[in-house]
Structures are given as structure tokens and as C-alpha cells.
Fold this sequence. Notes:
Layout: E1 29-32, H1 36-41, E2 44-46, E3 51-57, H2 68-73, E4 81-86, E5 91-98, E6 110-111, E7 116-119, E8 130-137, E9 140-143, E10 148-149, E11 174-181, H3 187-191, E12 206-216, E13 221-227, E14 233-240, E15 245-255, E16 264-275, E17 280-291
Antiparallel strand pairs: 1-8, 2-7, 3-4, 3-6, 4-5, 5-8, 8-9, 9-10, 11-12, 12-15, 13-14, 13-16, 16-17
Amino acid sequence: MANYVDVDPTGKASDFRCQPRTYDGHDGVDFAVRDLGVMRTGVPVLASAAGVVKNVREGMEDVALSDEASRERIKGRECGNGVMIEHQGGWQTQYCHLRKGSVRVKSGDRVEVATPLGLVGLSGQTEFPHVHLTIRHKGEVVDPFTGQPMKAGCGLEAKPSWRSDQGVAYEEVALYNAGFATGKPDIEAIRNGVRNDGPLQENVPALVLWVDIFGVQAGDRLRFLISGPKGEAMLDHEQEVEKTQARRFVFAGKSAPKRGWASGTYTGEVTLTRHQRDHAITERIVRKLAVQ
């Protein structure tokens, strides 16, 4: 999960758990894929419920938009390639940012639960590959995690729109991607799906452990641990997150020993800990790397 519905009725932003996992005016839930490489393999977007397709847009390019001029050029088409479906009882679902050329339905089509609509893409106003889902009831945006109207505020009793067997869970923070590099990681290449998961040679100059995270907050503690083939600690580094951000890429590493790296399997582990007044969380991601 990259972003949640903004339920704050003021000019600020808050998700339904009173956490900053959203931004002002965001009217849906963003289901992200790991990187553009995964997007290119083709990740299906399926209809949430039976209904009739009301509107479709197709033909917009899959391009990340990070500047105001680019966003201005697509004004009115921020959803990108998308599908809108009308359901019984005044319900409506909208699926945005689908991949160019992937939309498989047209206006007037009848769809059932899990009917393929298209593929996750990067079209419209977005900076990372995901599908944005908006749910409306009688024209009013509803937060599917609570069943409440968009601007009802946070901390309310939740009656989720999701089926309980779907396993859709809230993530206060998501360590969604991690790996190793042999020098300073190239963030653009990694987010484009270009990565080296080994095996590596014994003479590489360094082992650098990196992680990409959705939903960091100021004060979070990150611990980077690299263990060698015999379980010995090669790197044990901690740092504090200084700024609350929607997405953050962080790394730490160690130069090669004089005799090079011993052959075998190395383990990289990144742990995030957060302590707030009413709760604490710990999230961890682990990656393995072969050196030969």
C-alpha cells in the first residue's frame, strides 16, 4: 500500500488510522507494485464487484510525472488510462493509472467479480507504478477501510468494504523492496527494475544493503545488518529518519576486506522500529546474496 484515502476534512491530511499515509485530497487507495520491471511483466487489475462499465480511457503513455509542467499537460486526465464501473445500490468503482494498451473492456460491458480490466501501469498523474482505486456511493467517496465517507475524520469505528477473506490489511509502513549493490546504489535504475541479485564475485569493492520504504516518519530507527556465510556480523549500522516522507530510499554498506569477500551466502536485514505515544511497531525485510 502506497497511499490511503485522506479523511481529514481540513487542509491537512490523515488516513483513517490518524497516520500521515496519504496526502491532501487523495480520494482512493494506491496498490503499488515493486518497480517498473514488475510492471512490465504484466500485473492484472480485476473488477472488485459485478457491474457495468460506464467509462474507459486508453492511449495515455506510461511516464512518471514529477514536475508541475508535465502535470499541467494532463490536467483533467489525472487518472490516466482507467475504467469506471457502476454497481447495484448506487456504488461505483474507478481504477486509474492502467498500462497503455492493456485495457480489456469498453463502455457498456457487463463485468463480474475478478473480470480482468487491464494491467497496472504508470499513466496519468503518478510517479510510481500502481493502481489507484476509488470507491463512491451515490456520488460520495467512501474509504474502503472504514466504509465511512471520505471526510468523516480518523479514528472512527471501521466497517470495511473489503471482504474479510481478501486479506487486505493496513500497513502503517511498508519496507517493500531491498537488495544489495557493490557501490552507491542507483535509485533510478533500481526503481526501473534494474538490479543485481547475484551471485557476485569475491573481489567486488563493497557490499551495500539498500531498502525502499513507503511511509517513513521522523524519528523512525533503521538498522542495517549484513551477516557473512558463518553468521558473523559484517555490518551493523543504525540511523534515524529525520523527515516524514511518503517514500524513502536508504542504504548502508561496507568496503571489502583486504582479502576480499569469503565465498558463501550473505544475509542482509533491514529493521524499522517506531515508537509513538500509543503504540510501537517493528517491520523487517531480509535478502540473501551469494558470493562465489
